[in-house]
């Protein structure tokens, strides 16, 4: 295997890897940035892609465009193995990249907690591809409901969201808003009236990291829009035709969204890096992996603690700040200076529920803000977090458009595989006649005078 040598090799062009690369680019360091996608993706707005509010190019920015005219050598490849001792990685096409410093910023992957059927039958929301698939499925469900009352009777208009953290809450809120304001403009009124959103969590509350007051506000805002909250109950199985709950209930649905947690990802598995909670690497205060001083692990791939020893949450802000901090430590490494322990500046947490309704807890003191003020704050913070001027302008225009016109410009089916609903496949469900069968049956029965 031919090995390519760099001063720094970064795996992952997400929030953490990109911040590291951008800070190193300013110094002209010789850096390889490897990502399986040729774009950086902006997770916080994926739910808006899934609900047809904004377009994919707003949340996905080509890495080569970001790093053109810099010393960053962007490589599009999937890393298959990591050798922290040699500070090298090997891609699935067998090319090895070695750095004086290696940065692992591979993010997280959905954690299905070995729940039967969850990986196969639910729609996770962790990537641009996931968001496009989910959008196509939701449009497929609405179209099926429009075609046949039988499909409605079989639960096609039930949307089940597993996980009531920020992703689940934001998605539920956006879908409820769409059903109320937008769907009746495109489809017969009965479709929105029959549709039902379920938000399920094993924990007894929504938004577990928020204060009790924010949780109460959010719960009321969701219930006001007829979202059925099922809290303190786990999902024990996800089937093609719905979910089974721990209390024995079943909810028929063809649109089960998985927003139920994440883990450190496959690439870390065989690396030999010491892994802790959630399969993530427990890093030292300077963001390096214990025992591997030339290897940094950042963002969602790491368990990062603050000065008091509390674990920091898996947030874009944590990943971005860790990325910038790691770049400073890497430059110190290359100059032979000591590294500094990471200090996180906590600016707070936010969650959007719908137009004009959001919760924010500002700063380390968690000063609560709700309603329109929190909604506007959410928009401003996410505009700032977005990478790229074009992307910010796109997001801004899309928001003005969807919030004022109450339309969804992106109701496009671009994933026919996800759009199509397979009515017959779940083995434990007796095969139901579909439309084609029905016309044959009608024909036979009519011949027999029924
Ligand atoms: C739906 C959703 C909504 C969110 N909303 C918010 C929010 O509102 N606010 C907030 O602060 N945080 C939010 N988060 C969390 C935030 O997105 C993450 O904390 C952040 O993305 C972590 O950054 P990262 O760089 O560690 O990982 P990522 O941003 O996930 O980047 C990892 C990168 O590594 C690449 N990669 C992975 N494996 C390989 C491999 N084997 N080979 C090559 N490349 C690889 C991936 O393609 C990806 O580009 C949200 C997350 C999700 C999933």
Summarize the structure.
The protein is an alpha/beta fold and 450 residues long. It is globular and about 70 Å long.
SSE topology sketch:
Blueprint: E1 3-11, H1 15-25, E2 31-35, E3 39-41, H2 46-50, H3 56-59, E4 60-62, H4 63-66, E5 72-76, E6 79-83, E7 88-91, E8 96-104, E9 109-110, H5 118-121, E10 123-124, H6 128-147, H7 149-153, E11 158-162, H8 166-186, H9 189-194, E12 196-201, H10 212-224, E13 228-231, E14 235-239, E15 242-245, E16 250-252, E17 255-258, E18 262-263, H11 266-269, E19 281-282, E20 288-289, E21 292-297, E22 302-303, H12 316-335, E23 348-354, E24 357-362, E25 367-370, H13 371-385, H14 389-405, H15 416-419, H16 435-447
Parallel strand pairs: 1-2, 1-8, 2-5, 8-21, 10-17, 11-12, 11-17, 12-13, 19-22
Antiparallel strand pairs: 3-4, 6-7, 7-8, 9-18, 14-15, 15-16, 20-21, 23-24, 24-25
Task: Note down, in words, how this protein is organized.
The protein has 450 residues and is an alpha/beta fold. The strands form 7 sheets. Strands 1, 2, 5, 6, 7, 8, 20 and 21 form an 8-stranded mixed β-sheet that branches. The protein has a 5-stranded parallel β-sheet with strand order 10-17-11-12-13. A 3-stranded antiparallel β-sheet has the order 14-15-16. Helix 1 packs parallel to helix 12 (316-335). Residues 429-450 have low confidence and may be disordered. The protein binds flavin-adenine dinucleotide. Flavin-adenine dinucleotide binds next to helix 1, strand 2, helix 8 and helix 12. Residues 11-17, 34-37, 43-44, 46, 78-79, 105-107, 125-126, 166-167, 265, 267, 299-301, 314-317, 319 line the site of flavin-adenine dinucleotide.
